[in-house]
Amino acid sequence: MTEQSPPSARLGRLRQLSLVWLIPLLAIGVGLWMVYDTWRNQGPEITLTMPSAEGIEAGKTPIKVRDVAIGRVTSVSLSDKGDTVIATAQLDKSAAPLLFSDSQFWVVRPRVDSGGVSGLSTLLSGAYIQFQPGKSGQKQHSFNILSAPPVTAPDVPGLRLTLDARDVPTVGVGSPVLFQHYEVGRVEKAQFDTEARQMRYQIFIHRPYDRLVTSNSRFWVSSGVNLALTAAGLQLNVGSVQTLLSGGIAFDVPPGHSLGDAVGNQSRFMLYASEENARNLYYEQQLPYVVLFNESVRGLTVGAPVEYRGIRVGSVAAVPLTSLDIGPKKTGGNVGIPVLINLEVGRFDPDASKRPAGYWQARVADSIKNGMVARLKTGNLLSGALFVDLDFSGKKARALPKPFRTYPVLPASDSGGLSQIENKVIALLDKLNALKLEDTLNNADEALASTRDAAERTRVLMGEIDKLVANPQTQALPGDARKTLEQLRQSAAAFSADSAAYQELTQTLSTLNQLLQNARPLVRTLDAQPNALLFDRNDTDPTPKGARP
Fold it and tell me: Where would one find coiled-coil regions in this protein (predicted)?
């Protein structure tokens, strides 16, 4: 058997790579391109801190800007302390230029508040996170989600102001800002400053209405219904439907004053409790005076007007000014009630700020020397509210009254109105009491009895004279003697019970007696109840007609 030789290798060129390998290479290339494209288009990752994850789901909850999705929540977890929720979100690359320190995030869900109803579309699609881009220029990737949507977006043109309020009704966030009952803005923030012990509000005025705010503008709380019973009467102001529900803030320039200069962003103003307070406190140049009233000041309240011939020139600032000292005085003088009033110069002098220092103090001092006094007057019969009235009914003086605890004193005079009537009634009662009616009645009774006794004696005397005249011996007397007896009889007849003089005297005494008897109940009633001349003396209130039990 012959041996076969081993096969020999044949050398040749290697063939080219098979087309089959192109498919995995192409897949690798596409995958690398996708990774690169994803890396190139991938936006920043941000961290959102919120008090609760209600409605937030990882991998589902989108983040939107102007209803365009720019990212999605990737994870939701508790913080290390467990008091907050940390949500991580991946944004698109297009959102990177929008992330600044003043950017805002909030959860959009169905909401009902003073601004209306919002977020109804999320009933079907679910909650989402709204993103409001910032403009500060300072980059930031960690944010706190707002508890409520912002009232006004940061990019809306307008004017933001800060209002400081003390002892005024609270106004809620979202309440309207009104100018002459027209809405021109909104309340954005409301917080209490514990250090200043006052409320602080941030409001936003939309453009072009921001030009309405000037340096002389005054802001006040505009409640839905304002009912006030003051010395001027009953005042009722009704606002819009929205202010009835949530209140609001109104502003304007007080009438009779210039508009003032334009103001800048974040300017500060005071917020007053009402329009009346805003207008009254507008007059910053005030002259304080103390009036010592020697009568009751019941019905006089802080803010009551101070008037001169019906024109308001000031306001009452304090009733009383200090604690009262009602103990006996060694001097024996009356203790007056110190009432502090402020004369508001701007009310009667628009150019008060241009006057030299002390100008109006000197003018008022001259008026006091010429007899200017203050008195209490009734401004409203229904409420009994009082106000202070100034006139020149006092006596002229060479020197001013001594100051009261560094305050200049304005002399007080007797009151007017109902108090003056009451004083006159009391004076009338004093005069009636001084008449001693009991003694007068007794003297009248004695005079009437004496008159009757005299008439009886006259009647007896007349009978004796008639007998004397009829006596035959008297007839024998000379004619002159008989004539004298006849005249005596006629004179006595004039005082008889049947004579006209006696009848007139008796009637006069009887009328006087009856008048005095009728005056007794009136005097007793006025002594016990002086106001009986003005009001009904019934103890119970009358029942209106048609009243039902």
Answer: 418-454
Q: Is residue 28 part of a domain?
A: no
Task: List the domain range (segments joined by +) for residue 46.
Answer: 40-144
Choosing from 81, 109, 144, the residue where a domain stops is: 144
Same domain, 406 and 457: no
> What's the CA gap between 430 and 300, in Å, rounded?
28
Residue of higher predicted confidence among 40 and 243? 40
Contact between 363 and 287 under an 8 Å Cβ cutoff? The reply is no
- Quick check: is 35 in a domain? no
CA gap 411, 401 in Å, rounded: 7
pTM of the predicted structure, to 2 decimals: 0.54
Phi, psi of 364 (to 5 degrees): -70, -40
DSSP state of 549: -
**Cis peptide bond upstream of 320, omega within 30:** yes
Report the alpha-carbon distance of residue 289 to residue 401 in Å, rounded. 11
Residue 282 tokens read as 């507008």
Per the CB < 8 A criterion, the answer to whether 420 and 414 are in contact is: yes
- Regarding whether 165 and 121 lie in a shared domain, the answer is no
The pLDDT value given to residue 197: 87
Examine the domain organization and report whether 462 and 511 are in the same domain: yes
Regarding whether 258 and 212 lie in a shared domain, the answer is yes
The confidence score (pLDDT) of residue 368 equals: 92
Residue 55 backbone class (left: φ over 0; alpha: ψ -120 to 50; beta: rest): left
Same domain, 241 and 222: yes
- Answer whether residue 112 is part of any domain: yes
Number of folded domains that form the chain? 4
For 516, the token pair is 């005095």
Q: Which of 10-24, 215-229, 237-251, 458-472 has the highest mean pLDDT?
A: 215-229
Per DSSP, the three-state class of 530 is: helix
CA 349 – CA 305 distance, rounded (Å) = 17
DSSP string, 466-527: HHHHHSHHHHTS-HHHHHHHHHHHHHHHTTSTTSHHHHHHHHHHHHHHHHHHHHHHHHHHHH
Do 169 and 268 belong to one domain? yes
Residue 186 counted as domain residue: yes
